Amino acid sequence: MTAALVPAGSTAWTPTRRALRLGWALVSGVLSWSWRHTRWVLLVAALAFLTRLLPDGPVLAEWLLLLGWVAPALVATVWVTFWPVSYRRSVAGPAARVRWVCWARRRWPHLARECGLSVNREQTPTRSARLVGALTTGPAPALPKVWVHPRLCSATARGVTLTLTVRARTGQTVDDLEAVAPALAAAAGARSFRCRAVSPSMIEYDLVMSDRLTAVREATAPTDVRVDAVPLGRRQDDTAWVLPVTGRHTLVVGCSGSGKGSIFWGVCAGLAPAVRAGLVCLWGIDLKRGVEIGMGRHLFHRVATTPSEALDVLAALRVVIDQRGHRMAGHSRLHTPTPSDPLHVVAIDELAVLTAYTDPEIRKEASRLLAEILTQGRALGVVVLACVQDPRKEVIGLRGLFTQTIALRLRSAEETRMVLGDGTADLAPAHRISPATPGVAWVIDEDGTADRVRADYWPDRLVREVATHHPAPALHAHDIGSATLEMEEASNSEGQASAVASASPRARKPRSPRKPRQPRQPRPAPFNGGSSRSGGEAA
Ligand SMILES: Nc1ncnc2c1ncn2[C@@H]1O[C@H](COP(=O)(O)OP(=O)(O)OP(=O)(O)O)[C@@H](O)[C@H]1O
């Protein structure tokens, strides 16, 4: 009667419901723990059954069941419910690692055989068998056949990675071992893998057993002044992914929505403290109407949003290369950035617009300038970061000149091969990256191994904040080279006209920015050889 008077959902029912819910959670937790530890539970139950046969057995059996089964199941249920991270770190993680290692050691002969790494050979006869064979007449008895496997030298687990070190059997090479990596990873239930040749006969398989890259991680505003490299995100083993910048030209390829923006801003905004300190000079080419770079415009010394403006930027950098080349010749082989002589980074969003989709004249000139920068700029402190959606376009021609490539989500195995190289479709399957994980990419490390990474996410708010706090300083003539500045002034004065010309539907043939300036622009005196080409062409 009282219950009927209490309306459903009233507070009087809340404690009862909570208790019921808690009880059910505990029971289901204990049951699921028991299901996952069936063998242990059966062992405890069998021991308890045997214990009952002893004098005072029933009491002992109850204690055994309580301490061996119910108590651990309850503790685990409560721990994992309220402190999942600590449970994973202290219990589930170590237990899983022990399980993986035991599994690999126990199953290695079977795995090697099933993956095609083993051979079935006749057993080598022992010395005594050979002696008996020599003394007896008649046909020699058939020798039994045995399986010969490559040797599993070690199996270790760290974090979420199971590492197997394997030595090739006689007649095998590391290439044979590498070829079966996908099958091995599939047999182990690994989420991804990488393999590394340790020596001509030994290979290390890293099997990543749990995916740490599913969660989105937001980038944090950089504080350290770093020029050599920028942290971009994390690797699949949860270690930091740091991209070298100095002396590298970086090509980022990924279809629309694959997260190129995260890498673009990871580099540009990651260099922001160095930009503010004057050690890095950022040049932006955003051929998607300036939408991307507009977010962090203050970071950039100069931005081009049309193909003809982009030509001006490339020509200016070409002059920087000429000047530095003359200055460094005979003194230094590698440029060291200083506030008066910074590292120039040209960040290009949608390279294909410049090298494939624009007028043939601009396309040709842009490809020529880019090729010169890509081949000569590395040691002279001028590096390129280029993003592109479609690797099949003309960018292919320049692809070989980039010194590091990041493959975000691609459309096909063929694209993966184009971007990362032959034989990478299995080892670095960028075409299998899920559309639900933008920012995930495959990279080929310096040692030639492929690794899966995920860039941290750069929201617009953070980009704006970083750009506002680290604006590019106003550069003086000696900072970037007098010729560059002269060209820049000239191109600025003509920028409006060229932009209008390139935007106008009637202006089919855009101005070549290099010719009209020639008569007006005096050559920088000290650089006769270099300026004769770049100064003249750029002007
Ligand atoms: N590192 C990341 N982690 C999580 N989500 C991301 C990440 N990077 C991008 N995203 C999400 O994916 C969306 C698309 O990203 P982004 O604009 O960078 O792609 P894109 O490759 O530049 O595409 P497009 O070439 O069409 O401009 C973003 O709006 C964002 O929501």
Automatic annotation (TrEMBL):
ATP binds at residues 254-261. Residues 486-539 are annotated as: Disordered. Residues 236-417 form the FtsK domain. Keywords: ATP-binding, Cell cycle, Cell division, Membrane, Nucleotide-binding, Transmembrane, Transmembrane helix. Residues 506-520 have a biased composition (Basic residues). One of its GO terms (molecular function) is ATP binding. The chain crosses the membrane at residues 37-54, 63-85. The keyword Membrane applies. Coiled coil: none annotated. The keyword Membrane applies. One of its GO terms (biological process) is cell division. This is Cell division protein FtsK. It comes from Intrasporangium chromatireducens Q5-1.
